[in-house]
Every structure is written in C-alpha cells, then in structure tokens.
C-alpha cells in the first residue's frame, strides 16, 4: 500500500514538469531515505549539478545494472522538491516553508547555486528565535556568510530568548566552539555600539561648539536681542533669538564676562573661563581677523603666532574637530545661505566694539 503511494508520488514529481513528455525515458533512479524512488534523466541532472554529473559519469559496476543515486538523510518530500527544482528552476513557497533548510543543504552538497540563492533568501525571511541557532550552524556548514551574519545579529538582538531554546542547549552540548564564537560576536557588537555612542556624543559636543562659534559671529556682527555692535540699535522685539537656540545663553555669558568682578580680581571664575575659551576658539578658526568684530579675535591670533612653536596638540585637535563638525553641519543648504548673509553683513559694516543693553 505504502509502495503504491510512493510510486504515485515519484511519478507526480516528473509529470508536474511541463516539458517532461518531450524527454526520453528516465534512465536514473533517485532513492531517498524513506525508500521513495524517483525516475530522472541523467542529462538534466548533469546539466544542473556538476556533483550529480560526476556521479553519473562514474562507470557502473555491472553493465546491465540500473543507475541509482541515493539522496539520504532528508525527508522524501524535500528530495522531491529538490528534483523538481533541478527540472524547473522553481520551488513553491510551501516547499520553502516546509523544507527550506533541507533544500539549502542539498543545494550546497550538489552544488546548485540558483537553488542556494533561493533558499538563502527563503530561509533568512523565515528566521525565528526557535530556528536561528540551527540555521546558523547550517549557514556555517554550507558556507553562506550573509545568512550566517544575519543569524548572528538575530541571536545577539534576542539573546535572552534564544538562550532558552532547545537549539541553543543542543549547540552548547555539541559545539562549544560555536558557542564561544557567538558570545564573542555579541561582545564585539556591544563594544561597537558603545564606541558609536561615544563617537556620537563627541560629535554632538563639537557640533555644539561649532554652533556657538556661528552664534558668536551672529551676535557681534548683526547683533541680537540684548547684545550687539555698539552702533546698532537693539532689536525691537523682545522674544528669543530665532536663529540659534544657544543665542540667549551665549549673550548671558558675554554679559557676565563683561561685568564679572571675580575675573578682574584674578579669581578663577568658571563662566569667564568658558567665555575666554569660546573667544580663543573663535580666533583659532576665524579666517578674516582683519574685519572680524568678535572681541579679542586679533589679539588671540597675534598671541598664537608668537607662540606657534609651543601650541599644544590637544588644542589643535579640538580646533580641527570643531572645524570638521562645522563642515558637516554646513552641508545643509539653509546654513550655507545663512553664512552667505553673514559674510555680506560683515563686509558692509565696520564696528569698533559692542553694546550691552
Ligand atoms: Zn541671536
Ligand atoms: Zn566671571
Ligand atoms: Zn574673528
């Protein structure tokens, strides 16, 4: 009874192939673990798979004996789907769903690159917490680096749940090296994330400094709500600056700097030191010191020229980082336009000092 079923399955494989009727009689039998025999054509097999071609070209032991190729260790229906693909270059979503992993293994063993691509895609779309460890092992065995990496990332992202699966426990018992490799990958992913976060934090600091630099020029060139060039009327509106979010803070700092008693008494004032550094930083990146309205710009430039030889490396690095942050931020068109406007104002006015009101 069972045999009849198997035979009908095997003939179904071939009859499902559109051009099968034009082919000669099958001359090879594929035999599966479950005893299913699938009659196939050696010419087709040899054309699609170099490994099967080799097997077919081997001389037979007995001249009269029928050629049989065993494909064992995978479900019968997976072998049927495999043979179907050899004939039609197609396999259904249902077959992929049920036998994607087996088909991937077969495509690797019998060297069928198109099926391998199809399976890599199909299997990677169906990755779950439950199967990811098995697929990882298969991807390594079948030499599919993309799928391997995708599995690694998935395991790293859902490690707590993956750790609970049968697949993980089995792998721990049977392949401790792979476990080590996975743990190393997770560790590296974590430190890469930390490095990226640190880098982002640094970038945002340099960007803030770069914006503070633009804001300084804005205040001392065109003036803003409470601070500006001495011969320019304060703006009528009392609302906050609409150009720079930091403008109010920078203006407060400038006012403090102008009036602070502790600074003039030689005491260490944190806010004054900060302002001093902003002014020095401005001078370091200012490329128009002769027409610049920012206080102390030229003085700092002169001092820097005198001390050129002894300029400290950390400061130079800071200047470079702020400049590059500025370059990145000024890629946006809006900012470029604002800079052009700023340059125009700088060219048309000459201010001697600045007002506080
Ligand atoms: Zn402003
Ligand atoms: Zn102060
Ligand atoms: Zn300047």
TrEMBL record:
One of the protein's GO biological processes: response to hormone
GO molecular function: calmodulin binding; zinc ion binding
Pathway: Protein modification; protein ubiquitination
PROSITE patterns cross-referenced by the UniProt entry: BTB (PS50097)
Organism: Durio zibethinus (Durian)
Pfam families per the UniProt record, alphabetical: BTB (PF00651), zf-TAZ (PF02135)
Annotated InterPro entries: BT1/2/3/4/5 (IPR044513), BTB/POZ_dom (IPR000210), SKP1/BTB/POZ_sf (IPR011333), TAZ_dom_sf (IPR035898), Znf_TAZ (IPR000197)
Transmembrane segments: none
Keywords: Metal-binding, Ubl conjugation pathway, Zinc, Zinc-finger
Name used for this protein in its record: BTB/POZ and TAZ domain-containing protein 1-like isoform X2
BTB domain segment(s): 26-95
One GO cellular component term noted in the UniProt record for this chain: nucleus
SMART domains: BTB (SM00225), ZnF_TAZ (SM00551)
């Amino acid at each position: 009874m069972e045999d009849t079923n198997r035979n009908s399955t095997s003939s179904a494989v071939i009859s499902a192939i559109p051009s099968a009727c034009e082919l000669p009689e099958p001359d090879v039998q594929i035999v599966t673990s479950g005893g299913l025999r699938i009659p196939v054509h050696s010419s087709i097999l040899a054309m699609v798979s170099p490994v099967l071609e080799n097997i077919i070209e081997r001389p037979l032991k007995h001249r009269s004996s029928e050629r049989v190729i065993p494909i064992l260790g995978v479900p019968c229906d997976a072998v049927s789907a495999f043979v179907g693909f050899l004939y039609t270059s197609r396999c259904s979503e249902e077959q992929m769903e049920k036998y994607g992993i087996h088909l991937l293994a077969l495509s690797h063993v019998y060297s069928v690159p198109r099926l391998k691509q199809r399976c890599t895609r199909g299997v990677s779309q169906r990755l779950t917490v439950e199967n990811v460890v098995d697929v990882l092992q298969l991807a390594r065995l079948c030499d599919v680096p993309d799928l391997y990496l995708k599995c690694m990332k998935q395991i790293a992202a859902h490690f707590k749940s993956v750790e609970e699966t049968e697949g993980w426990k089995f792998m721990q018992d049977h392949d401790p090296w792979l476990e080590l490799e996975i743990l190393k990958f997770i560790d590296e992913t974590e430190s890469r994330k930390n490095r990226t976060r640190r880098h982002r934090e640094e970038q945002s600091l340099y960007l803030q400094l770069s914006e503070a630099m633009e804001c300084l020029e804005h205040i001392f060139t065109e003036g803003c709500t409470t601070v500006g060039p001495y011969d320019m009327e304060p703006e009528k509106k009392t609302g906050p600056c609409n150009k720079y979010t930091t403008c109010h803070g920078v203006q407060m700092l400038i006012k403090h700097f102008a009036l602070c008693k502790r600074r003039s008494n030689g005491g260490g004032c944190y806010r004054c030191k900060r302002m001093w550094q902003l002014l020095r930083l401005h001078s370091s990146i200012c490329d128009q010191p002769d027409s610049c309205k920012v206080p102390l710009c030229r003085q700092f430039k002169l001092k820097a020229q005198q001390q050129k030889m002894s300029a400290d490396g950390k400061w130079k690095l800071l200047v470079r980082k702020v400049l590059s942050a500025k370059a990145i931020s000024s890629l946006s068109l809006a900012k470029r336009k604002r800079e052009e406007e700023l340059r125009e104002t700088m060219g048309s006015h000459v201010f001697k000092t600045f007002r506080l009101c």
